[in-house]
Each structure stands twice: as C-alpha cells, then as structure tokens.
Amino acid sequence: MFCGVQGAIAPIVGDVPPQSRRRRTRLRFRHRGDGHLSTVYVFVLLDIGTRRIVHCNLTEHPTAELTIQQFRNGLPLDGTYRFLVHDRDGIFAPAVDEALRSMSLRVLKTPVRAPQANAHCERFIGTARRECLDWMIPLNERHLRSVLAEWISHYNRERPHSVLGPGFPEDTTRQATLTGHRLPAAHRVVASTRLGGLHHHYTLEPIAA
Fold first, then answer.
1. Residue 78: which CATH number?
2. How many domains does the chain have?
C-alpha cells in the first residue's frame, strides 16, 4: 500500500506545516480470483495534517510510470503541498523523483531500513487491515476496489480520529460530540451499516410528531 504520511526524519520536516507532509509505503494484498491467487498493490496518498485519504488506486503490476501517473492524478494542482517524503523502495526510480520535482515538490527520503520512520503510514496500514481487509475476502480486483472505496469513505467522513479532536479528516472543523446516554428531546439514534454491517455510522434524527 502506497501511502502519503510523515516519516521520522524530524530534523528535516520538523518545521514543515503538518498539512504539507506526505509519504508513502507499500502493502501487498493477495486476493482469490478465477481460481488463482494474485498480488494486488494499493496506492494511497494520505494527508498528514488531516489524516484524509486523498487518492487511492489498485494495480497488479506497479511500475515507476504508474506511480508517476498516480501522483499526477492524486495531488492537487494548487500547490497545497510542498514536500513529499518516500522510502527507498525500488519503485521510486529517478524518473519518479524528477516528475515530483516538476510538480514543485521537494522530495525527502526516509533512512534505509527504518520502519520506525513510517509511523503514521504504518498506523494507517494497520488500521486498514484491522478494520477492513482482515474481515473481507475479495473475489477479484473489482471487488477489492469496491470494498476499499466504501471503507475509505467511512474513514474520511465518519470515523472520528482522536488526534483531530476527535474530528473527521474530510472536515476537521466538525468535531465528534460525546452525549453519553442523554439524547436531545424528540430525537432518536439511527444506525447506518457500512461494509455489510462490519461498521456502523450513528446519527441523531428528529422524531416525527
């Protein structure tokens, strides 16, 4: 899984605004389709400041050219980001770094064999596994794409993140409120299922008179 998150090269990015820090790492995921097992690579761009998943795509054959195209598709054109941190995976050919520099991004590389430098990224990958992939058996790439799309939408818009307040990546100004067991008068709790009931989203709904 390729994912944009902050690395542990704090002396370099310590003074960078959180919303400017991105990096990427990899998760291989095997799925069963047409009677055989194949490895699917998931490309994800994650905004560190908001924890929002900015872009996601899948492929069975990752290449430098495809990686460049995903950055072009996923990164905004308004210059929101100034830095992009990545590890020393072989997929990052010199052409990838050149393409990133042409997008006015400064490329920062993590230390060699330093998984602790992938703190945010490793956390996200663990979350994706624990909350989604470990519970699903994708039948093919299209099924996996559908599963991830639904879960990422839940992750961005409905899943509170404690580091944000708790808040939500899609809108960091919106905060989750703790009501305990007390509900506003004339309201009820409505549960909406996600991924066939694996997760639920709860909202307050006025009770019709």
1. 3.30.420.10
2. 1
